[in-house]
Amino acid sequence: MKTQIPAPVLRSPDHLIAAIPFLLGFRPRASVVIVWIDSGTIALTQRVDWPAAGAGASLDSWASSVIHAARHVQAHGAVLLGYPGDPEQAFSTALTLPLSALSRVWTDSDCEVLDAILVLDDCWHCAETDDGTLAWSARAFDLQISAEVSDDFMYSGWSFMASREEVCAEFADPSRPPEVSVLELEQQAQARTFAQSAELEQWRDEVICRISTSLTTGTMPGAERAEFTVGLRDIRVRDAVLWHLAGELDANTALIALRGLVRGLPEGHRAPAATVAGICAWLTGDGVRASAAIEIALADEPEYGLALLVSTALLNGLPPRTWQSTMEQLSYDACRNGLG
User: Fold this and answer.
1) Domains and CATH numbers, the chain
2) CA pair distance 288, 277, nearest whole angstrom
């Protein structure tokens, strides 16, 4: 988990713009980014999709929901950055731009909008608000600052991908056929029909142990992927694995194994494994990959309860410590056998 930002990203807009792809993990497009700042440090980097064309009067409602989602963030100021999907049309409807809407509905007197910046392909535009509306003043990128910030981040081990789609492809790549077939999963599920409850409990303990071993080593044996997938669909197995994950397991290593597991699964069978992968990414402090994994889980099963819970936490900007604190209050026995 990266806890230190390696460059003075708040020194100027050029510094901040150069740092955004590293902070998000990908180069944003058709996005609005809010950088929440507290005592000179970044408290949260929040990204949302650029509103659909023709949103019109609903932009204020959209802006209110974006701000409300980060209501738990402790910050004294925020910088708004817009990355329009079609830069050539960025100023065609200036009064309804998302940044204008955010500025209009911003009502928190304890947290002020420090700057509003529209980032295009070859320049950025700073907002000026003399008459209460946003007017835009163009600035050329300072290429020397961009290079220095990038060098600082890369030297410290940070990187980013070309797009959010590339991040999602780490968990579900539509260009690759699944490594686990639906038939294998069905056969594993049928094999888990036990005549006696003692046999079920023994299998649960065994698969919990083997999944935990895989997460410890960062490997996911191909021969066990189908059984592990079926195992994680069992709530008692899943919650016991999550207890280990929040405790003694290294989340960065575990994420390698979980990412490989989810990527190899067919559509319709990813939700439990993808949710565990999302929680794992959240624990490493990687909100981008956490959101991508949870999005995949909910695409497979829109009503999957744990994925909905984690999605809400991520949308509200809750830190990973929130999940860890919750798990610390539970015993292994409570996770393995249920609270009742």
Assistant:
1) 13-160 (3.40.140), 169-337 (no CATH)
2) 12
